[in-house]
Design brief:
Elements (H helix, E strand, L loop, with lengths): L14 E5 L3 H12 L3 E5 L8 H9 L3 E3 L12 E4 L8 H8 L4 E3 H7 L6 E5 L4 H12 L5 E6 L5 H8 L7 E6 L2 H4 L9 E4 L14 H9 L10 E4 L4 H4 L7 E4 L10 E3 L3 E4 L5 E3 L8 H16 L4 H9 L9 E6 L2 E5 L6 H9 L5 E6 L11 H7 E7 L3 H8 L5 E3 L4 H11 L5 E4 L12 H20 L1
Parallel strand pairs: 1-2, 1-4, 2-3, 4-5, 6-8, 6-9, 7-8, 9-10, 10-11, 16-20, 17-18, 17-20, 18-19
Antiparallel strand pairs: 12-13, 13-14, 15-16
Helix pairs in contact: 1-6, 5-10
Length: 464
Amino acid sequence: MIDLKTKPTTLKNLRVTVLGAKRSGIGAAILAARCGATVLLSDAATVEINSQYITELQQNNIQIETSGHTDRVFDSDLIVLSPGIPNDAPIVEAISRRNIPIVAEVEMAYWFCPTNEIIAVTGSNGKTTTTTLLFEIFKGSSYEPFCGGNIGTAFSNLIVDSERSSHPHKIFILELSSFQLERIVHFHPKISIILNITPDHMDRYEHSMAFYLAAKLRITLNQTQTDYYIYNDDNALLVANLPTRCNLIPAGLYSESDKIITADASKIFFTDSKQYIERDRLALLGEHNLYNLIAALSAARLCNISIDHLQTALYNFKSIEHRLEFVTTIDGVDYYNDSKATNVDSVNYALKSFTRPVIVILGGKDKDSDFTLLIPPIRAHVKAVILIGKAAEKIRRMLEGIVPLHEAGYSMPAAIKIARDLAEPGDVILLSPACASFDMFNDYEQRGRVFKEIVMTMQKDQQS
């Protein structure tokens, strides 16, 4: 068995099993093999692995089993657990009974990270926006940024990619979910960021905000007095649970505390300079994005990124795919793809970003959410709700009588057609589901792409 009392530096001659054969699992398997391990990649489901990955897995002599775990899993010195597999899964409980060490993919990848320059971002909402924003900020700076984690590229793949670069100042910018943080041991970011904490994934955390918060706070687990923790000090839960071992950097809007970055209705200010950023020149809308901007700018200034560079980067920054992403205008109606809004609070923020009437598409796989929390913003901003997916009936029960509700079954084309028939010039049609996507799609990205493809085809057919 591997000894996790100290951070491992090699996997040579060790047997490593990676559970979960999707993006992060494949990345972990390849990295483990490159670091000397004999690797088994195992998935309980019938998974179609891209032929390109199959070739790379075979080149690294990685054994693959799908459609069920065999007892080969237990013949291991280390288990690397993909984030989508919960701790109470039978295979995980069986491994635990055998006392085989289990770590997250981001933990194992960290062992082989070539630098301690890591910015790790988590929170219930805004992770993708802030992480992507940081990546754009660090481009063209004195650093070479590598960006991924819970979005885009797995941390393990970033480690492999970084080996091809001789740049002297590499930095890793990671979006991390609570699932990824559950199984860290030595993972140690130079800068950690928690943007906010609101109810999410209650189905995984036994309906307990305390359990969910504890998973998020693990991002600071190994930070010391030379590290920084950027947190939203307008969030009471975060303020009540501050770590004690690292430097605290508040990044709220309303609290009276000393901040690196502040803002008013028109400008974002750098407190150590007379320079500022004009908000009306930014593509990111809404108060929620102002929080994301303050957190990202705080991290950048801690890394000594110049204000001139920050101004240029932000003024050139465009919208993020699947996050309040403008798609097109058809017959005076604007279409927005907010497929990344997989919880209630995220939809709340999205609806508040519009002053025009909104027709919103809600539904998908429920995460034990309380959809009644959407009643105030729906009353204020929404003229109709289109319901899709498995959660449609639950949402209907909770929103009945608040606004006209229309059901589209499990069909995105039907949802868009109903919305279009209801819309008038000046309205907004918004996909902002408040649910996971797995009842109809592989992930939120596929859901968003399908939405955009249908809308763009609709526009093309109209023009032809």
